[in-house]
Amino acid sequence: MSLSRVNTSAATLTKNRTEGSIVHTSGMCVTCVDGCIGMCEIGKSAFRGHEVIYPQPFGVITTAAEKDYPLDYSHLNIMGTAAGAFGVAADSDKAIFPAVNLEVRFGHDKKLKFRYPWIIPGIGSTDIAKNNWEGLAIGSALAGTGLTIGENVAGMDVESIIRDGRVIDTVDLKRRVNLFKDHQLDGYGAIIVQSNIEDTRLGVHQYAIEKLGVECVEMKWGQGAKDIGGEVKIRNLKKAQMLYERGYIVMPNPTDPNVIRAFEHGAFKEFERHSRVGMVTEDAFAQAVENLRKTGAQYIFLKTGAYRPVDLARAIVFSSRYGIDLLTVDGAGGGTGMSPWRMMNEWGVPPLELHSLLHQYATRLQAAGQYVPTLAVAGGFTFEDQIFKGLAMGAPFVKLVGMARAPIAAAMVGKTIGQAIRDQQLPVYVERFGDTIDQIFVTASDLRKELGDADFDRLPPGAIGLYTYYERLAQGLRQLMAGSRRFALEYMSRDDLAALTPEAAKVSGIPYIMDVDKEAVDQIFGGNGHRGKSQLGDPKSAGSAMPVRPN
């Protein structure tokens, strides 16, 4: 059985003629007929060529790999228990799930504080991010979580002012930063500005720190969706030429007279803008960190992707040596606005394997007495059970889970419902809950009470959609943690998980479900510990899977 779908996908708007009879290895129809118009990816490539490399239609979709990996987080199950509690008194009137504390504090020298243990990693210059930024920024700020402005935002902005190759003013980046900061409550959450090679050359981090008051910056080595630089589609010739002049790779060359004529005659409708790939060295990394600190960065993050294990080792060791505040590791197949479709499916280390290696490497650093940066894991997380598993498997080092596609989806749905209310065209599926913002969004009354009528009424529906989605995740996570008797994130442990297959156990280091609690079971049968004692791991006992308290 093939793990991959080949030659046909909703992502590339392609399909087979003989949908019931497909060759698994090639993805081709069993009978390829002379005279077919070319509905499959091979056929479409015959007349649209390189355009079919990318998911379509660009600008209104996010995409993620549909490959079936041999192992994923569904091969782990969450372990609950009937006795004891950590973080609250072992009292049935006190150990209730609303008492679970989801707040996270992290940082090398001084601490950032998040209300919830998740963050939106880099969402950059794609239309899908720009068109939904109001909802993403305001919703994240109100929820008290993190949001990362991804690569190329300043460089893509036609209104940015660039002199001598350096950014001195922006419109889009400034708007994105301020939308978050203007709605931030009680100092919770953070807006982070990311930088790739082109951004670094343009001085984006320096501009963001000095002119926009940004405290958190992130260096980018890559992402889980691809192992090349970022790319977008450009439908405007003048903009393509501007980006070419700013130093981006633009294909085909928008200054070539033959290309200009072909574009004007409709031979193609979109240019491709590409970013360069990085060249990581320790010396350059150390210098970049030093420069950012001298500029005034209060917190420095690093984001890396699904590269081979030696690159993951570089990421965590360099982050340790140079005091990085947060390292985000993004597994293969991650969601994006536009990445080469086959690359997204067929390259890189999948999330479960990558995050298992990450835990191994963090444990090695800790055993050597070295600083272990706070870790975040990303790669297809959407709901509270997956968030629990990511945090537990990475404990005590992983404090955050990164999500992008799911928050974008929540913000888009909120925005769409708001528009449908204004147009008085609510679908029956939604209208059964009411026909106003206050009736449809279940968090509206609480938000209105907290913000007041005037501020609430100014909220974009996309922000309410994201906030409401986050509220669901928070309550669901509290319920799961209460069932495992962990009433604060610092008490989460790899002991809270069991592997459902020997292979998952071997890869993750999580015990096979038939081997879980063997020693505790033997103690009970031996007459020890059966008089109502908790069988939860003691964080002070030798060999316990429980984490030590965070730094």
Give an overview of the whole structure:
- Among the domains are: 10-53, no CATH class; 73-230 and 275-409, Aldolase class I (TIM Barrel).
- Helix content is 38%, strand content 13%.
- It is built from 22 helices and 17 strands.
- The relative contact order is 0.14.
- The strands form 5 sheets. Strands 4-5-8-9-13-14-15-16 form an 8-stranded parallel β-barrel, surrounded by 7 helices.
- The protein has 551 residues and is α/β, with parallel strands linked by helices.
Oligomerization category of the chains in this entry? single chain
Rounded mean pLDDT score: 92
Portion in helices = 25-40%
User: How far is the first residue's CA from the last residue's CA?
Assistant: 47 Å
| Major beta-sheet overview | 8 strands, parallel, barrel
Q: What's the count of strands?
A: 17
Classified in CATH, the superfamily of the domain at 73-230 and 275-409 is: Aldolase class I
Helix-strand layout with pairing:
Elements: H1 41-48, E1 76-78, E2 104-106, E3 112-114, E4 118-123, H2 127-130, H3 133-143, E5 146-149, H4 153-156, E6 161-163, E7 166-169, H5 172-181, E8 190-195, H6 197-202, H7 204-212, E9 216-220, E10 231-234, H8 237-245, E11 249-251, H9 257-264, E12 271-274, H10 282-295, E13 299-304, H11 309-321, E14 326-330, H12 341-346, H13 351-367, E15 374-378, H14 384-393, E16 398-402, H15 405-423, H16 428-431, H17 437-440, H18 444-451, H19 453-457, H20 461-483, E17 497-499, H21 502-508, H22 518-525
Parallel strand pairs: 4-5, 4-16, 5-8, 8-9, 9-13, 13-14, 14-15, 15-16
Antiparallel strand pairs: 1-17, 2-3, 6-7, 10-12, 11-12
